[in-house]
Amino acid sequence: MMTSTPFRRSKATIGMAAVALVGLSACGGSSSDGDGGSGDSAGGDIDCSVYEEFGDLDGKEVSIYTSIVAPEDTPHKESYKPFEDCTGVKVTYEGSKEFEAQLQVRVKGGTAPDLAIIPQPGLLKTMVETGKVKGAPEQVEANVDEFFGEDWKTYGSVDDTFYAAPLGANVKSFVWYSPAAFEEKGYEVPQTWSEMMDLSKKIAEDTSGEEGVKPWCAGIGSGDATGWPATDWMEDVMLRTAGPDAYDQWVEHEIKFNDQQVVDALGEVGKILKDPAMVNGGLGDVRTIATTEFQQAGLPIMDGMCYMHRQASFYAANWVEAGAEVGEDGDVWAFYLPAQEAEGDKPVLGGGEFVAAFDDRPEVQAFQTYLSSDVWANEKAKVTEGGWVSANTGLDVENLKSPVDQLAAETLQDENAVFRFDGSDMMPGVVGAGSFWKEMTNWIATDKDDKAVLDAIEKSWPSN
Hints:
D-Maltodextrin-Binding Protein, domain 2, 2 domains, four-stranded mixed sheet, 19 helices, 12 strands, Carbohydrate ABC transporter substrate-binding protein (CUT1 family)
């Protein structure tokens, strides 16, 4: 969800539910044949020799600062134990709900942490501009080159200098549905955008005599952040209709917000969210989308009042809370929001975190190397009950306990995946968390005209 400017919460922070906690067995220190931090982490054993090049680290300390607080912080702390056992380094973890504001204060005041988990590229750029962020060491860059796609490395770079390795990730390009309902009606999971639209029309026809039943259900309510789910819709569709290059230009305002490509994308979103034949199953008319809290928006699927709901992987927590079993054979499951074509590039909208360093002591670089490795990704997966995934291709999907996390990892690791960060999270705050949210809400609540909506957002874009 939102992660754009330094003083606002990320959208992932808004939507992410707390994860369950489990323990991690201690590192045994046995070696494997990995290098650069990689190796067989099965059973908690990792290749400790990887860290010998950083010298004698026993008794050293490394501090890490993050927005991830209790209870979600426990799996992070547990995942550091193999590194601590191997090297003798003590990792000091500090989480804060005021992280984004306080990080800047601390950096400018000369009390920066050794490392910070930064939740979006915009804040990373802001931190780099202070002159305090250290370039990533060669070991970290080697790991990122090996285990992450070029798109992820780009998001960790500023002005062509690589600073921060990716850490966790989330996937937004999912559609939730009931496998049983699809099977009963003979509906197939669509493989292209046109197939999805044809399926939507088919469901609308089949349910035309059932009061309140619609193909789609949606809700964009989120308190002061109302509107963000609609911006996610827009971003996902923009990626698919205009393509990743135009998407990047749109986010950077190299094309205007009311450019024809953006107009076309909003029109495509409107074929679902503004069509009374398509929404809002079990909830009311189109305008109820604006007043329905996003946490409740997909639940009509459980009552057979709705067949599809577009929302991120983290929405799994809302199903569990509602008593639904999540899985391919469960009460609810998800499919990839289709691209224009079944073959070729698969646009994936999402978010993620990046590890930036404010010190280049050997122990700091060693810990950076660990966090950028496939070893850490697998250790983190083992100690997390659910609600976490990484785009690290060295992550063994089987180590993830949640089926949705496994689906998200498979989506990110797909060789055809073209990942793009949440657009509103990278736009200036006055737009991304301001006019974009507000005008998309007006588009639904007051049936504001497409052109008027986009013109208003374009007008709000800062001149410098």
